[in-house]
Amino acid sequence: MINLDNKVALITGSSDGIGKAAAVLFSSLGAKVAIVGRDQTKLDQVAAECEAKSPHNYKPVVIKADFTRDEDVVRTFEETISAYKHLDILVNNAGLGGTKDIRDPDYIHDYDRVQQVNVRSVVRLTELSIPHLVKSKGLIVNVSSVVAVKPSEKFWYYSMSKAALDMFTKTMALKLAPHVRVNSVNPGPVRTRFLSPLVPDTNTVYEDMDKRQPLGRVGDPNEIANVIAFLSSEASSNMTGSIVFSDSGYLLAE
Ligand code: NDP
Questions:
Q1: What positions belong to coiled-coil segments (predicted)?
Q2: Spatial distance between the Cα atoms of 183 and 172, rounded to a whole number of angstroms
Q3: 67: Cβ below 6 Å to ligand 1?
Q4: What is the mean pLDDT of the chain?
Q5: Residue 9 DSSP code
Q6: Which of 12, 57, 162, 183 is exposed most, by the fewest CB atoms within 10 A?
């Protein structure tokens, strides 16, 4: 059911975690991918993995970019189109968290950084992709979070960014129908490096979170990549504007 053979996909935040899992999965399904992140070493490793998994030995287009910078967002798009001259799938996955207290004198800088990467870069990439996706009858998958619908006091501005992203998914789904489908996967906690800049001991945090999930464990990046691939394929052809939770049952728990 999931056929991505020869589809061209730009997957942001693909040097690590969920985006990396998606890039490798898409490559194994025959897609041509553009991968993006700030860390060149990690990007090169992901590119090698993608090429090894590709049934056509496709080498990904590798783009080093920092999405807090508007010019890097635009360059990411331009390098993808310049290499492939075509776009079928845009996966807006790059994202970061933030936990500064509103009483912290510095919080507004971190707030701006989170909104820039989690919302503004998605809006810009969508804007630039529209003509290409209309032409290819393509689609967009946004990677949001359960905290878009269940507020997190600690991650308050991260929650805000993902709530904004969900409304962007729905409004763009309306605007771009029937030409381009736009959907979202909203993960619960997933074991990646996402929390590393925010908490000192991520292992203990994940062990604690494992116990609190109805499924008894947090998610794995490959489980989220599977949903991204489903939403990127004809298997989800009747879906647009959908917010799909993949969350170990997180939203069922208190
Ligand atoms: P990771 O930290 O493992 O990966 C994040 C990716 O985003 C990396 O490739 C990173 O690139 C990239 N990225 C971060 N900041 C920037 C930036 N300024 N410019 C360009 N790229 C950037 O996190 P996850 O894989 O867990 O997160 C992926 C998505 O999933 C995010 O949108 C996140 O909000 C969402 N999510 C994650 C959850 C979790 O528990 N892990 C839960 C719910 C949602 P690099 O390292 O090269 O800088």
A1: none
A2: 9
A3: yes
A4: 97
A5: E
A6: 57
Q: Which CATH architecture has domain 8-246?
A: 3-Layer(aba) Sandwich (3.40)
* Separation of alpha carbons 52 and 223, rounded Å: 21
Query: Among this protein's residues, is 250 annotated catalytic?
Result: no
ipTM of the complex: 0.99
Probe residue for ligand 1, chosen from 18, 228, 246 as the CB with the greatest number of ligand atoms within 8 Å = 18
The phi-psi region of residue 130 (left if phi > 0; otherwise alpha if psi is between -120 and 50; otherwise beta) is alpha
44 in Cβ contact with 62 (< 8 Å): yes
The CA 37 to ligand 1 mean position distance, Å, reads 9
Q: Is the pLDDT of residue 42 over 90?
A: yes
Spatial distance between the Cα atoms of 101 and 238, rounded to a whole number of angstroms: 42
**Cα dist. 170→131, 174, 233 in Å?**
19, 6, 19
- State whether the beta carbon of 44 lies less than 6 angstroms from ligand 1: no
Q: Which of 53, 45, 52, 41 is nearest to 229 (CA)?
A: 53
**Separation of CA 17 and ligand 1 centre (Å):** 7
Q: Is the pTM of this model over 0.90?
A: yes
The residue extents of the domains of the chain are 8-246
Regarding the beta carbon of 138 and ligand 1, being less than 6 Å apart is answered no
Atom 48, ligand 1: residue with shortest CA distance: 38
